[in-house]
Amino acid sequence: MSDPETFRVEVRAWLERNCPASLRAPANAAVSSEDTICWGGRGWVFASEDQRLWLERMAARGWTAPEWPRDYGGGGLDRAEARVLREELARIRARSPLASFGLSMLGPALLRYGSEEQKRRFLPPIVRGEIRWCQGYSEPGAGSDLAGLQTRAEDRGDHFLVNGQKIWTSYADQADWIFCLVRTDATAAKQEGISFLLFDMESPGVSTRPITLISGSSPFCETFFHEVRVPKDQLVGELNRGWEIAKYLLTHEREMISALFGVGSAGQATLAEVARDRIGLRAGRLADPGLRHDIARQAIDAEAFAATLERVVDEAKSGLGTGAASSLLKYYGTELNKRRHELLMAIGGAEALGWEGERFDGGALARGWLRSKGNSIEGGTSEIQLNIIAKRILGLPG
Amino acid sequence: MALVWDDDERMLDEAARAFLDANSPPAELRRLRDSRDPEGFSRALWHEMAALGWAGLLVPEPYGGLGFAHTGAGILCEHGGRTLAASPLFATAIVGATLIGHLATDAQKQRLLPALARGELLCALALEERARHDPAAIAMSATPAGDGFRLDGEKHFVLDGHVADLLLVVARRADAASDEDGIEVFALPRATVGLGVERTVMADSRNAATLRCDGVHVAAEARLGLPGQAEAALAHTLDVARICVAAELLGVAAEVFARTVDYLKQRRQFGRVIGEFQALQHRAARLFCDIELTRSAVLRALRAIDAADPRLGALASVAKLQAAETATLAVNEAVQMHGGIGITDDIDIGLFMKRGATLRQLFGDSYFHADRYATLAGY
Question: Which CATH superfamily is domain A262-393 in?
Answer without folding.
Answer: Butyryl-CoA Dehydrogenase, subunit A, domain 3 (1.20.140.10)
